[in-house]
Amino acid sequence: MTSRRLLYLNAHRLSAYAWQQGALLSEGAFDNDETGLQQFAEYLAQNRNSHFSLLANVAEEGHSLETIPFLQGGDRQALITRKIGQHFLGTSLSSAISLGYEKSQRKNEKLLLSALTSPANFEPWLRRIASADAALAGIYTVAQLGGELLKKLGLGSQRCMLLTLQDSSIRESYLVDGHAHFSRMAPLVDSSIAGIASAFAAESGKLRQYLIGQRLIGRDENLPVFIVAHPQTIPAIEKARPEHGLLDFTLIDSHAAAHKLQLRTLPDDNRSELLFLHLLTTAPPRQQFANADHRHHFQLSQIRRGLIAAGLIALLGSLLFAAKEAYVGHTLRQEVAALSAETADLKRRYSEIAATFPQLEIDNDTLRRLTHRYGELRSLQRQPNSSYAMISRVLDRMPAIALESIDWKNGTFLPLTAAISSGPEITTVRGAIRLERATTRQTLAVFDQFVQALRADPANTVNVLQRPFDIESGSALRGGDGLDEDAKPRPFSVEVIRKIAP
Question: What is the pLDDT along the chain (502 residues), one digit of tens a residue?
């Protein structure tokens, strides 16, 4: 995991801290000279894999309110850059905070522009950070964190003043909705407890008069004042503050604030930089003063961490998928083993049962082929149902025909190794014509009708094997042609060949 380190910069030196689980560990202080800058470069080389955040407490900090038209994207950013250049010329350490939109027809956006107006104080340190390829997360100020401090402590109002002690000077900030609209540093001449108490009381009155002069507050407006101090100094401040006035003082115990912020390193004196450094680690503001060039290596580090995180997620997904596939494979192997055992048991039982069968002179393969062949022949076997039904329908229409016998056969059979041929069905019908007091001509007419009825089906071919009377088929039947009119007709025989569609 990437370690986090904090840099605290004032006009004279830079102090380095390591943040570990709510504790701030001092790792050194570097003076603003060649020796101190060289030591700072060595410190960065030793901790080049850390992420650094720089907290500045300098007097050269400016704030300005501006209103711009409603814009988006690159146009908005270009206009903000131009406005910052108009208010704070010659510095690249700036930020812009949106304060919302005006409730008017044009929907103008209100901005709070802030900048560090003396970049020369930062250049030596920033140059060493860039040379060491260290990851700079951002540059922040004490005034910028004042609103967040009051928010974490459950204090603050729409407009208030915040006074803290840093570097033998008093930081005075005027906050509106948690944002610093004005901030300055007042030197501390007497660093005793009584001197600090009187300085807090005097500077709060001076700041109020300045805000009234700048028309930031009304002359009769009651303004809350929050003072952060060491527990031993709070009684002296209570005595030094004026009894009456338009300033509503609230004293904040720095040790109680540290406990509420879960800071394990308690301040040793009235200085509050430890509170702000801890707050910078746990709840950094969204806006900061460093530009893209200063944060280049930090952005590369963020990209690197994102790629590593994506790789770890992909690796974890692959491991989960591999585990799932391994589990599926293990399950399948268990099923295969169970099926193999069941198959072996069935084979054993079959062998035991087969041992009780009568012994044949053919092997199992030949018997299996004969069984399959018998099934095929069984499925191809035909029945005379259709032929018998056709003849029955004809006989129903001709009651004079007396059926004596009927023979049916199914085409021509091939050898056993071949399938049944698709030959026709042959049906031989034998019968007699029984008409009372019928002449030979009437008998033959009934026979011809029977034959024609059989030929009405296009699938039938009818062959007359024997007629009721033995006469030439093409001669006419007349009286006196030699036949006995009292002769009885003999049985007839007709062969019906019926083609069956495949």
Answer: 678 899 999 988 999 999 888 888 999 999 999 999 999 999 999 998 899 999 999 988 999 999 888 888 888 899 998 998 898 888 889 999 998 888 776 788 899 999 999 999 999 999 999 999 999 999 999 999 999 999 999 987 788 999 999 888 999 999 999 899 999 999 988 889 999 999 998 999 899 999 999 888 888 888 899 999 999 999 999 888 877 678 889 999 999 999 999 998 888 889 999 999 999 999 999 889 998 889 888 889 889 889 999 999 999 999 999 999 999 999 999 999 999 999 999 999 988 887 887 777 787 788 888 888 887 777 666 778 888 888 999 999 999 899 999 998 876 544 444 444 457 889 999 999 988 888 888 889 999 999 999 999 888 899 999 999 876 555 555 444 444 555 688 999 999 998 876 5
CB-based contact 230:269 (threshold 8 Å): yes
DSSP letter for 357, please.
S
Q: What is the DSSP string of 138-164?
A: EEEEHHHHHHHHHHHTT---SEEEEEE
Do 268 and 140 fall within a single domain?
yes
Measured distance CA(231)–CA(277) in Å, rounded: 20
Strands (E), 167-256: 169-176, 179-187, 223-229, 247-253
Q: Which domain holds residue 176?
A: 4-60+118-294
Q: Does residue 100 belong to any structural domain of this protein?
A: no
| Burial class of 93 by CB neighbour count within 10 A (0 to 12, 13 to 18, 19+) | buried
Amino acid 303 reads I
Q: Distance between CA atoms of 212 and 214, rounded to whole angstroms?
A: 5
| CATH code where residue 471 lies | 3.30.70
Question: Looking at the 3D structure of the chain, how many domains does it have?
Answer: 2
Q: Is 269 part of any domain? A: yes
Identify any residues that bridge with 462 across adjacent strands, giving them in sequence order.
496
290 Cβ neighbours under 8 A, 6+ residues apart: 54, 93, 136, 138, 139
- Specify the amino acid at residue 205: G
Show which of 270, 294, 318 is a domain's final residue: 294
Q: Which two tokens stand for residue 314?
A: 């992909």
Same domain, 153 and 283: yes
**Considering 294, 323, 357, which residue would you say is the last residue of a domain?**
294
Is 362 contained in some domain? no
Residue 143 contacts residue 53 (beta carbons within 8 Å): no
Q: Which residue has the tokens 């970049």?
A: 119
> How many whole angstroms separate alpha carbon 316 and alpha carbon 434?
100
- Structure tokens that stand for 340 in this block: 């193999």
- Judge whether 266 lies within some domain: yes
The three-state secondary structure class of 169 is strand
Please tell me whether residues 263 and 387 are part of one structural domain.
no
